[in-house]
Design goal:
3-stranded antiparallel beta sheet, 9 strands, 154 residues, 3 helices, globular
């Protein structure tokens, strides 16, 4: 039974990402960490840019960082009473996943956040993201997928 299950996972890859949004009271910013599989990111960036990339087996270049920043700006937004500007801080590879870091402009804690996450949705119809919002000690979690790309947090 175990070998059958393992074979199923190998033949049917899953596409999942993790997004953590944390309000940092010291800097008065929302800090975003997005974890996705590096090969999925590479394919998504290639479709987005029309360029051939090799980020799986190489380090990020200025071109790759610029593409990631532009891709995130188009596919990930946080709004409240107005759009929070998210700056691309950087990214790093960790084995077969990539962490992407964004940070908002200075703002007080918002009572309401509307998060749009369309990362890799046009690349993979089964793409799913687990979203966690942490403010103080309160954590809220939601699931995002191609039929539900937005979520509201109060």
């Amino acid at each position: 039974m175990t070998s059958t299950l393992l074979l199923w996972f190998i033949l049917h890859p899953f596409h999942v990402g993790l997004t953590d949004i944390h309000y940092n009271a010291d800097s008065e910013t929302y800090q975003v960490s997005i974890k996705i599989f590096t090969d999925d990111l590479e394919k998504g960036l290639e479709e987005f840019s029309g360029m051939s990339l090799d980020i799986v087996d190489s380090d990020f270049s200025e071109t790759t960082d610029s593409l990631i920043a532009n891709y995130m700006a188009r596919h990930f937004q946080i709004t409240s009473t107005s759009t929070l500007n998210l700056d691309y801080i950087g990214s790093e590879k960790e084995y077969d996943v990539t962490w992407i870091y964004l940070e908002s402009n200075r703002t007080k804690i918002q009572e309401y956040l509307h998060v749009t996450n369309e990362i890799l949705m046009s690349t993979y119809s089964d793409q799913t993201h687990i979203l966690h919002l942490t403010v103080d000690d309160n954590i809220q979690s939601e699931l995002i997928h191609s039929e539900k790309t937005t979520v509201d947090f109060n």
